[in-house]
Amino acid sequence: MIKKILSILFLGYSLTIFILAMLVVLPFILISSILFKQKKAQDIIFLFLKLWAGIFSIFCFFPIRTRGYELHNPEKAYIYISNHNSYLDAIAVVLSISGSVKPLGKIEMAKTPLFGMIYKRVVVLIDRKDKESRARSVEELKTDLARGQSILIFPEGTMNKTESDLADFYDGAFRLAIETQTDIAPMVILNARTLLPRANPLHAKPGIITCVFDEPVEVAGLIADDLEDLKAKVRKRMEYLIEAN
Q1: Residue 191: which pLDDT band, with cuts at 50, 70 and 90?
Q2: Within 10 A of 7 (CB to CB), how many other CB atoms are there?
Q3: Residue 134 near residue 170, CB atoms below 8 Å
Q4: CA 17 – CA 139 distance, rounded (Å)
């Protein structure tokens, strides 16, 4: 009972810090989205997101440890591919990737009070139930990549609800990589599901989150027929990173 009460108190405290930190950066994000456009806006907004994530990480005792990022060229645009197990993944991604990244995100999250104001200015929105929305999001992602903007896609589509380390992957990220000839940068987020389980957030507790990056997977010369092999290759690398760490 005491442990449960402490978890509830910690969750309430963390939520309060989350909101307060968001209130600190929100005006700067809104102003940046008005004054700047395209990749310049994303770069500046991402700096304020790092401030928000840093405040939350420090005051809620969720330190982020990063390994392997030196394998990536900071001047190059990648399609980052990551597992997705917890609400803490957003904090981990923002703090572990040194440059800016534009995620693909569900349109439903844009309706969240306060958070939605930031969310819709940072992500490429997609309604997976709407064919036209899916097509528009793909075109927007292609445009961002052409401008040198790295993007982030969770190939599982949503938070992993299975008992496995990785749920089934959708094809979209890998088709996009082949069509734009953009290398894939696999990464995994470790321990986030243990610290803040999606299924039972009342079990929240502080602890270290580790982000591990692998060498980029080159796609130069690949064609549509190579999609399944590419998807299997990236999944195998991510499974290895999870098992080895």
Answers
A1: very high
A2: 16
A3: no
A4: 36
- CA 48, CA 177: separation in Å to the nearest integer? 28
- pLDDT tens by residue, 122-155: 999 998 888 898 999 999 999 999 999 999 999 9
Strands, DSSP E only, in the chain? Answer: 64-67, 79-82, 102-106, 124-126, 151-153, 184-190, 209-213
Distance CA 215, CA 226 (A): 19
The two structure tokens encoding residue 107 = 């349109």
Neighbours of 193 (CB within 10 A): 19
Give the chain's length: 245
Average pLDDT over residues 170-176: 97
Domains of the chain: 63-244 (3.40.1130.10)
Q: Which of 220, 153, 218 is nearest to 187 (CA)?
A: 153
DSSP character string of 15-35: HHHHHHHHHHHHHHHHHHHHH
Which residue type does 72 have? H
Question: Confidence class of residue 222 from pLDDT cuts 50, 70 and 90?
Answer: very high
Two tokens at 11?
A: 């969750």
Strand partners, 80: 152, 185
